[in-house]
Prior knowledge:
This protein has two helices and five strands. By secondary structure, the protein is of the alpha+beta class. Among the domains are: 7-104, CATH 2.40.50.140; 106-152, no CATH class. β4 and β5 form a beta hairpin. Residues 21-93 form the S1 motif domain. Its main location: nucleus. It is found in: Nucleus, Nucleolus.
Amino acid sequence: MSHHDGSSQEPAGxxxxxxxxxxxKGEVVSIQTYGAFVRLPxxxxxxLVHVSEMSASRVENASEIVDVGEHVWIKVIGRExxxxxxxxxxxxxxxxxxxxxxxxxxxxxxxQDSRRRRQFRDQTSNRITLEAVLxxxxxxxxxxxxxxxxxxxxxxxxxxxxxxxxxxxxxxQQTSAATSQQESDRKKKKKEKKKEKIDKSMLNPALxxx
Length: 210
């Protein structure tokens, strides 16, 4: 078994597992749609060969490539601790299945795949966090989309919407109409007074002659 000498940098929790970038031949013990689990001789922990690591070509279902009980060459491309669980990731496409020769001796493809998996996990985590925030209701202002500690609303402060310009227009029109009516009434009274003066002026000479 050949392997990359990086054991001194590995966490203590990964002791007892096959070394990172080592190559070995194992047995397929379980097949799922997303990949196959392979057990290596001398190790209890099984590793997952994801469908993306089975072939350089696109694979829809792991059963298209392997069968339970089949022996395959794998390369250890990932050793992770998630909580109390240890995950082993294997690759078949990085190894010649006929000879067991390493097809990615500088681990360039393995590193690229590892970064891609981390980015996918980070994006998934960020999306879940964002959805949780958007569905949160603030206990201070009663609005959705932010936590209480991030609320900018002052306690007990309420806001009143200012009237739109369209709302002020009818009021302005009513005021103008009322002013016009008052002006009309004033002119009417002025005419009546003027007429009354004219009538009186005509009446006085008549009384004198009488």
